[in-house]
Design a protein that fits this description.
The protein is an alpha+beta fold. It has a single domain (3-130), classed as Cytidine Deaminase, domain 2 (3-Layer(aba) Sandwich). 27% of the residues lie in helices and 21% in strands. Strands 2-1-3-4-5 form a five-stranded mixed sheet. Strand 3, helix 3 (88-97) and strand 4 (104-107) form a beta-alpha-beta unit. Helix 2 packs parallel to helix 3 (88-97). The protein is globular, with a radius of gyration of 14 Å. The termini are far apart. The structure holds zinc ion. Zinc ion (ZN) binds next to helix 3.
Length: 132
């Protein structure tokens, strides 16, 4: 069921620029109309300027005019020994930019875990919190 999106995420992983960590990540967002958007982690010598694969993929999706309601699922894959889960910044970003109940497919090529943003970031800070 998730084989295609996982394969596309691994294609994106090949484009990772990770000379510092050596940890390669790829991501693929699938929209409801069948369009895919890829992202890879892009590191920087100024480590804080690094951008994660899943953020790059969802930003590409939005940059092409798609919005939260259009996102059907995301796959995030890595070459680590264990399945990689999104970092805290990515959890915050994804919780705002994609529906909380759509599949988040995590894989390292050996194991796959399907979760969602509700599970990954319960009690998320969101726009409702800005109301005074
Ligand atoms: Zn991240």
């Amino acid at each position: 069921m998730y084989d295609e999106i996982i394969a596309k995420a691994f294609e994106a992983l090949k484009n990772a620029y990770a000379p510092y960590s050596g940890y390669h990540v790829g991501a693929c967002v699938r929209c409801r109309d069948g369009r895919y958007f890829l992202g890879a982690n892009i590191e920087n010598a100024s480590y804080g300027a690094t951008s994660c694969a899943e953020r790059n993929a969802i930003f590409s999706c939005y940059s092409n005019g798609y919005r939260k309601k259009d996102v059907e699922m995301i796959a995030i894959v890595s070459d680590g020994e264990r399945i990689g889960t999104p970092c805290g910044i990515c959890r915050q970003v994804l919780s705002e930019l994609m529906p909380s109940d759509v599949p988040v497919v995590l894989s390292n090529g050996k194991e796959t875990l399907v979760t969602n943003m509700q599970e990954l970031l319960p009690m998320a800070f969101d726009s409702e919190d800005l109301i005074r």
